[in-house]
Amino acid sequence: MGDLSETCEIKETHKISAVIFDLDGTLLNTEQVTKGALEEYLAMYGKVPEREREAKRLGMTQREVVSGIIKDYDLPVSPDRYIEEILPFYQGKWKLTKPLPGATRLMGHLHKQGVPFALASNSIRINIDRKLSYHEGWKERFAVILGSDQVKSGKPEPDIFLEAAAKMNVDATDCLVIEDSVVGVKAAKAAGMKVVAVPSVQPEMDQYSIADSVLHSILELQPEVWGLPPYDDWIDNVLQVEPIFFKGFYTNGLLHEFTGDIMSVLPTQVFGNFIGWAKINSSKLLKILVKIGWENSNCSKRHIEAYLPEDDENLHDSEMEIVLLGYIRRSNNMETTNVLGILDEDKSAAKAAFYRPEFSLDACKSLFQQNDE
What pathway or pathways are given for this protein in its record (predicted)? Predict the structure, then answer.
């Protein structure tokens, strides 16, 4: 399997000239937000989705997904009728999508450095444009945007990646692909490209063995490993990230996520050490450092530890609303996030960061207000 974290040494390969992104589950948390759409639709026909069956459709083209669902659930509709009926269920949720950790940062960095990048998705083009319309400035930055309906065959065939490279006028072997699905990884390798997998289904990470590198989050990506310009946006040992909101129940140093509201659950790709603020009893705000990892090697259960630097009262068995604002850089292998215990070096980095305006109480107050509106 590819490494779960990247080495700082430049790989013995030629320099990457362009990057190609997948969209759903790679740049946007689309799959998390739309999780209930199929369930709502199937309920009209008295059917219930089967989790294992649906997981296997990750990364498939719309045509494959539609025909498979109609067959598997014995639906009395044609493919065209199915699309017409289910589309409103998805469209209502697309506007709620948010960038996954590190996505906006990486695209902004590549754009600033003059590195061309493309979007190649198994969604059809009209749906890609709809999803991008909710994220200001995104569409304009892509040198090329392709959907599966614009090439002969979608992923796992290499057509869409080869077409993206051709339109950017770069050789396929000079491209780096960022993907979240096994289907997409297979397509990229078939195109002769380098590929970094950031699985959206963490318990299946062992299936990504053909990828050149396997990461838990785009935040772990080190551009210099691939011959690309390095980042220059670290604030000492902490990186400012787009706000990540979730709700949890705090007890004995651990946080247990609320799973009732899908919008309050952390995306799978949130991994590592983060600083932020916790709102207790809908009013009191406290600084918090959280360590987000997995309890076992097959990543089947999330593990969240919490450290409250200013815990001056008994907060055990407390409900918390949390906003994460910063990501702590680690010099060692990120896989150590699976080891129990928050390290003193991370506590020190967190305490120092809270003195900066980017991670201050004032910054967090306005964010909580915006999230509540």
Answer: Cofactor biosynthesis; FMN biosynthesis; FMN from riboflavin (ATP route): step 1/1
Q: Can you tell me the distance from the alpha carbon of 115 to that of 103, in angstroms, rounded to the nearest whole number?
A: 15
| DSSP letter string, 130-182 | HHHTTSTTHHHH-SEEEEGGGSSS-TTSSHHHHHHHHHTT--GGGEEEEESSH
Other beta carbons less than 10 A from residue 60's beta carbon: 19
Tokens of 75: 């639906």
Dist. CA 42–CA 174, nearest whole Å: 43
Q: Which of 6, 22, 157, 220 is catalytic?
A: 22
How far is the C-alpha of 177 from the C-alpha of 22, rounded, in Å?
A: 8
Selected catalytic residue, list 305, 319, 335, 345: 305
| Active-site choice (24, 31, 159, 179) | 24
Our CA dihedral for 192, 197, 201, 202, rounded to 10 degrees, sits at: 140
C-beta separation of 96 from 263 below 8 A: yes
Instruction: Give first-to-last CA distance, the chain, whole Å.
Output: 44
Is residue 232 flagged as an active site residue?
no
Residue % of the chain over a pLDDT of 90: 55
Instruction: In whole angstroms, give the CA distance from residue 255 to residue 260.
Output: 15
The neighbouring-strand residues paired with 117 are 19
Tokens of 7: 């080495």
Strands 272-280 and 284-294: antiparallel
Q: Which residue has the higher pLDDT, 226 or 313?
A: 226
Reply yes or no on whether 22 is catalytic: yes
* 1: Cβ contacts below 8 Å, ≥ 6 apart: 205, 206, 208, 209, 211, 214
Tell me the whole-structure pTM to 2 decimals: 0.88
* 305 flagged as catalytic: yes
In sequence order, what E strands does the chain have?
A: 18-21, 117-121, 144-147, 175-179, 194-197, 213-214, 238-251, 254-257, 272-280, 284-294, 302-307, 318-328
